[in-house]
C-alpha cells in the first residue's frame, strides 16, 4: 500500500466499525487497533448494523479537520474579516496569510485527506449496499426495507456530493473561470481498500460539478421529506429532501447558473412572505438570529448542521469556539477586523444590528477594544454544532439569482433581501412616536448595486460560517488584503495563492496528478 493513501484507506477500511470515528490530530489512526470491528461480511446482516454505518458516514464528514470546524474557519479567515492573533502555525496561520505550499500538513494535507476519507467511506457503503441486496429481502429485515436502503443510499450520495463540493472550493479554480474547463479533482467513485487504483487523473471542474449534481438529484428523489415533527435533532443533523434542494441552490450559485438556482429555490421558498418551506421540514427564518446559535441550535432555520457531544467532540484545535471566542471560552485565535476593509468598518453593518450587538463580543484592554465573534458560545468540551447550510442562505441565493436574471427592482428579490436584514434590525418596541419605519435597503438602480447588497448581507449574516471564500471565488473577486497581508488576485500569474496547492503526498503517489499552477 502506498504511504500517501494510508490514512485514507485506513479510514475506508473502517466501514465495518460499529462506532463513530473522528480523525483529528490522531496519529494512531495510521495503525489502529480495531477493538469494535465486525468482519466485513456481517456488517450488513441486521438493520441496526446498517444504520450504524450510515451514522458513521456522517462522522467522517464532520471530522474536525473537515466540515466539523476547519473547513468553515479556512473559508472565512482567507478573506479580510478576521485578524490572526496567535501566530500559531497549527491553527490556520498559513491559510490566513496565504503562505501555504504543497507540504503544509495542518491544512493542505489534512483537509484533503479528511475529504477523500469521507468520499471513500461513502463509496464503500454504496458498494456494500449493492453487494448485499439479497440479504435485505429476508429476516431480520422488515418487508419494506428496500425503501430504507434507498434512503440510506441517498444520504451517502448527498454526503459524497457535499465533500466533493467543499474540496473544489479550495483546491480548484472556480467554475466561473472557464465554464468548468479548468483542472478539478480526481473523481473517485469506486471504493478503495488499497493503493491499486491510486493513479487517477484529474477530472475537470465541470465534470466534478456534474457528478455533484447527479448525486444531489438522486438524493432528493429518495430522501425522506422529514424525520417527523418531533424529531428536531434529526431534521437538522440528518439529510432530508430539503437538504438536497438547499445544497443544489449553493452549487448552482457557485456555477453561475442562476435560472437553476431559482428553479431549485422555488421548491422550498414561496413567492411572497411569509417565507416558509411549503413541503418537507417547514424551514423559515427564526425570529431571532441569536436563538439560531443558542443551544441546542436546532431551529427550523437550520437545514444541516453537524452535532457534537462531550464524548464526540471536534478534536483539539478544530473547534469553532476555540478559534473565535477569547479565553476562557476559547483561545481567541482570530478576532474581527476593525480596520480598513473589515466588516466592522462597513457602513452597511449598522451599529444597532442584532448580529453586531448580540453575536459580537467586545473585549476591552489597556491597548484598546478587540472584537470577537460570539456565534459559537460553548467552551470545553465544545458542543456547538458546525453549520453547513441555513434557510437564510437559500433566501439570499434566490434573491441574488432573481436580481441577476429579472433585474434590480424584482419585488420577490427585494422582499427576500429585506426579510433577512429586518430580522436583525427590527422595529423598536414599544413603538415610537412618530413610528419608526422598518430598516430596508434603498431602491436599487442597477443589477450590480442589487447584487452587491446581497453579497454584503451574506457577508454579515454568515460571518464565521464558511461562506465568504465561496462568494469571493464564484465571483472571481480578489481575496482582499488585511493587516500586513496583501490581496490575492484571481488573475495575476505571479500570485498562485488564489487556490490551494495540491498536497505533495498526492503528487508523489498519484502519477497522473498535476499541480495547481
From TrEMBL:
Residues 353-516 form the RagB/SusD domain. Residues 93-253 form the SusD-like N-terminal domain. Belongs to the SusD family. InterPro entries: SusD-like_N, SusD_RagB_dom, TPR-like_helical_dom_sf. The lineage of its organism: Bacteria, Pseudomonadati, Bacteroidota, Cytophagia, Cytophagales. Residues 1-19 form the signal peptide. Keywords: Cell outer membrane, Membrane, Signal. Transmembrane segments: none annotated. This is RagB/SusD family nutrient uptake outer membrane protein.
Amino acid at each position: 500500500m502506498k504511504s500517501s493513501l494510508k490514512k485514507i484507506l485506513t479510514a475506508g477500511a473502517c466501514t465495518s466499525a460499529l462506532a463513530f470515528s473522528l480523525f483529528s490530530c490522531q496519529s494512531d489512526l495510521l495503525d489502529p487497533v480495531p477493538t469494535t470491528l465486525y468482519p466485513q461480511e456481517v456488517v450488513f446482516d441486521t438493520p441496526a448494523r446498517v444504520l450504524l454505518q450510515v451514522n458513521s458516514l456522517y462522522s467522517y464528514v464532520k471530522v474536525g479537520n473537515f466540515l466539523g470546524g476547519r473547513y468553515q474557519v479556512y473559508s472565512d479567515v482567507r478573506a479580510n474579516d478576521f485578524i490572526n492573533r496567535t501566530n500559531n502555525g497549527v491553527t490556520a496561520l498559513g491559510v490566513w496569510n496565504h503562505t501555504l505550499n504543497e507540504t503544509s500538513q495542518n491544512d493542505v494535507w489534512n483537509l484533503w485527506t479528511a475529504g477523500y476519507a469521507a468520499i471513500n467511506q461513502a463509496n464503500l457503503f454504496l458498494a456494500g449496499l449493492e453487494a448485499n441486496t439479497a440479504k435485505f429481502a429476508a429476516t431480520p429485515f422488515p418487508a419494506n426495507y428496500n425503501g430504507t436502503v434507498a434512503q440510506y443510499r441517498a444520504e451517502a450520495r448527498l454526503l459524497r456530493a457535499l465533500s466533493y463540493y467543499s474540496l473544489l472550493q479550495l483546491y480548484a479554480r472556480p467554475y466561473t473561470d472557464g465554464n468548468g474547463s479548468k483542472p478539478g479533482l480526481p473523481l473517485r467513485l469506486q471504493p478503495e481498500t488499497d493503493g491499486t487504483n491510486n493513479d487517477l487523473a484529474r477530472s475537470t471542474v465541470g465534470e466534478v460539478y456534474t457528478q455533484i449534481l447527479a448525486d444531489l438529484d438522486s438524493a432528493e428523489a429518495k430522501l425522506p421529506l422529514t424525520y417527523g415533527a418531533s424529531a428536531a435533532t434529526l431534521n437538522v443533523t440528518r439529510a432530508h429532501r430539503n437538504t438536497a434542494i438547499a445544497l443544489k441552490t449553493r452549487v448552482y450559485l457557485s456555477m453561475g447558473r442562476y435560472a437553476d438556482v431559482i428553479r431549485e429555490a422555488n421548491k422550498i421558498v414561496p413567492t411572497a412572505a411569509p417565507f416558509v418551506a411549503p413541503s418537507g421540514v417547514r424551514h423559515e427564518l427564526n425570529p431571532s438570529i441569536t436563538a439560531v446559535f443558542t443551544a441546542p441550535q436546532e431551529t427550523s432555520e437550520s437545514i444541516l448542521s453537524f452535532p457534537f457531544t462531550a464524548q464526540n467532540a471536534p478534536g483539539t484545535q478544530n473547534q469553532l469556539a476555540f478559534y473565535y471566542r477569547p479565553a476562557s471560552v476559547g483561545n481567541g485565535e482570530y478576532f474581527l477586523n476593525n480596520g480598513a476593509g473589515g466588516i466592522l468598518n462597513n457602513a452597511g453593518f449598522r451599529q444597532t444590528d442584532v448580529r453586531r450587538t448580540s453575536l459580537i463580543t467586545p473585549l476591552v484592554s489597556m491597548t484598546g477594544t478587540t472584537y470577537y465573534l460570539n456565534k459559537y458560545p460553548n467552551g470545553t468540551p465544545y458542543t456547538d454544532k458546525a453549520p453547513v447550510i441555513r434557510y437564510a442562505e437559500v433566501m439570499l441565493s434566490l434573491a441574488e439569482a432573481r436580481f441577476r436574471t429579472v433585474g434590480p427592482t424584482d419585488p420577490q428579490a427585494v422582499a427576500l433581501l429585506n426579510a433577512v436584514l429586518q430580522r436583525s434590525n427590527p422595529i423598536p418596541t414599544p413603538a415610537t412616536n412618530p413610528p419608526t419605519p422598518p430598516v430596508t435597503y434603498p431602491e436599487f438602480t442597477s443589477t450590480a448595486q442589487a447584487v452587491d447588497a446581497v453579497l454584503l448581507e451574506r457577508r454579515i449574516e454568515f460571518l464565521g460560517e464558511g461562506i465568504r471564500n465561496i462568494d469571493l471565488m464564484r465571483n472571481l473577486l480578489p481575496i482582499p488584503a488585511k493587516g500586513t497581508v496583501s490581496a490575492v488576485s484571481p488573475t495575476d500569474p505571479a500570485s498562485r495563492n488564489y487556490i490551494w496547492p495540491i498536497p505533495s503526498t498526492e503528487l508523489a503517489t498519484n502519477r497522473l496528478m498535476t499541480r495547481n499552477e
